[in-house]
Structure formats: C-alpha cells, structure tokens
UniProtKB/TrEMBL annotation:
<dbReference type="GO" id="GO:1990133">
    <property type="term" value="C:molybdopterin adenylyltransferase complex"/>
</dbReference>
<dbReference type="InterPro" id="IPR012675">
    <property type="entry name" value="Beta-grasp_dom_sf"/>
</dbReference>
<dbReference type="GO" id="GO:0006777">
    <property type="term" value="P:Mo-molybdopterin cofactor biosynthetic process"/>
</dbReference>
<dbReference type="Pfam" id="PF02597">
    <property type="entry name" value="ThiS"/>
</dbReference>
<comment type="similarity">
    <text>Belongs to the MoaD family.</text>
</comment>
<dbReference type="GO" id="GO:0000166">
    <property type="term" value="F:nucleotide binding"/>
</dbReference>
<dbReference type="InterPro" id="IPR016155">
    <property type="entry name" value="Mopterin_synth/thiamin_S_b"/>
</dbReference>
<protein>
    <recommendedName>
        <fullName>Molybdopterin synthase sulfur carrier subunit</fullName>
    </recommendedName>
</protein>
<dbReference type="InterPro" id="IPR003749">
    <property type="entry name" value="ThiS/MoaD-like"/>
</dbReference>
<keyword id="KW-0547">Nucleotide-binding</keyword>
<dbReference type="InterPro" id="IPR044672">
    <property type="entry name" value="MOCS2A"/>
</dbReference>
Amino acid sequence: MSRLQTMKIQLRYFAALREALGPGETLELAGPATVAEVRDLLIARGGAHASALARGRAVRAALNQAMVAESAALADGAELAFFPPVTGG
C-alpha cells in the first residue's frame, strides 16, 4: 500500500504582492503539484490572496530563483516566488 507523500514548499511574495500578502509563508501540500495548482490553491483561500493572485492579473513565478511557466512541477523543499511583471525605464 502506498501513501501520498506530503511536501513543504517556501512561498515568497515580492513588490505589490508582498504589500498585500506579506513576505511569504511555508505551505504543506498533499502531494505533487505545479505552480498553477499552488496559485489556484492560494486563490481559493479568498480575501487578499484571491485578489492579489487572481487569474486576470499578470503574475510571474520563479522556482528556486529561476523564471518558470505555471506548468512547472514543484519538489519538496522548493522555493516558489510570485511577483508582478517588472517594467524598467
């Protein structure tokens, strides 16, 4: 009989997302997940998470400090960061 392995990831928020949600948190997941699944899980919390990470908003993701698509798979101990697109001038 096999059991699903839980995993913990570290979430970080930057710029306007940090102002709305704080610097970050540790999240425990029931099993394997993608960036998109974690974003949807956070949106489902409602409140500030729902508005800050809403699907209509432009949000970028970095996994272990490398830019990734939302289809990227997470591993136990990963650091996942969310931030708005950055514009320069």
